[in-house]
Amino acid sequence: MIELSTNVVLALGLICAFYIAWCLGANDAANPTDTTVGAGVLDWKTARHIFAVFVFLGALLQGHMVMKTIGRGVVSYIDALGCLAIVLGAGLWITLCTWRGLPISTTHSIVGAVLGYGLVRYGVEGVNWNVVMCVILSWCLTPVLGIATTVIMYRVVTWLLSKTRNMEKIEKIARWGLIASLCFSAYSFGANDVGNATGVFISVTSSVGDVPPHLSTILLAAFGALGIVLGAYTLGYRVTYTVGFRITRLDPITGFVAEFSNALLVYAFTLFGIPISTTHASTSSIMGVGLARGVENVDWRTVLYMVLAWALTVPGAALLSSMIYTLLTHVVTT
Q1: Partners of 2 in beta bridges
Q2: What pLDDT score does 207 carry?
Q3: Which of 32, 103, 238, 246 has its CA 20 to 30 A from that of 43?
């Protein structure tokens, strides 16, 4: 057996958590920025600067609302080895899917990894299935709500546009509205998704060195936000271009409708402390504006490819984290 102090295990876990935050930024920065770039309103470099500012604001001001759900909701307590197993399991799954070119949800990966750890550590009866079912329900509802909200908003906007003849002015307003929606969406993204990278550490960091829970939450939120921003600045452009241009063709008006619907949905779930897939929210909103103009405007091959990846993520991450935790408990003591 290898004996490691709790602080060493925690440090290793935080390094892995930073890596997950980086992956999150690299893959999911597209969710707030894709419509703005896809509609040609802003270039990627400008969009990512706005993204960075508002992700930090969202993480610091309201990131605690989802962090507490992931950190203490699925299971009652996550020990140091558990934190390490969860972030390693989720990180490996994200890396594997990225290597295979599969677009996945980081939310699915983290919650799946926590579930896998909980089943090994506490058994079936030790998992808060009400929280798990609530999260799963949000995953099922998000695409439906995203599409429905966007279609309704698109109908309302097109009806309003039919009442005016000054399309040049309307398009200018839509461009500024899309930029404002990017800010709102990035804020909501930071508030909801920072918990995916660091939420599992709330329990253990609060118990190490007598750090007050509120302070540890703020520090973890800033730590996760930094990783997200670095991920966006390095590889975020790849997914942004894919989602912004491949699902459906966007213009300033349809981009505004999709982005505002996306931000509204993510923020609503954040207020209830429920982690959702911002990828689901973003892509379903973009699908919504495509469907509103006709089913032929949606690239269904891309959509089906993403749905398959989402379906495999929870069991895949759960399996990896449970295997890693079992291995760690046999070779490491704290």
Answers
A1: 332
A2: 57
A3: 103
When mean pLDDT is compared across 9-18, 45-54, 214-223, the lowest value belongs to 9-18
CB 219 within 8 A of CB 93: no
Rounded Cα distance between 255 and 271, Å, is 24
Extract long-range pairs of 179-182: CB within 8 Å, 24+ residues apart.
179/36, 179/41, 179/42, 179/50, 181/35, 181/36, 181/256, 181/259, 181/260, 181/262, 181/263, 182/32, 182/33, 182/35, 182/36, 182/42, 182/47, 182/50, 182/51, 182/54, 182/259
- Name which of 84, 109, 92 is nearest 28 in CA terms: 109
What's this model's pTM, rounded to 2 decimal places?
0.75
CA–CA gap between residue 89 and residue 93 (Å, rounded):
6
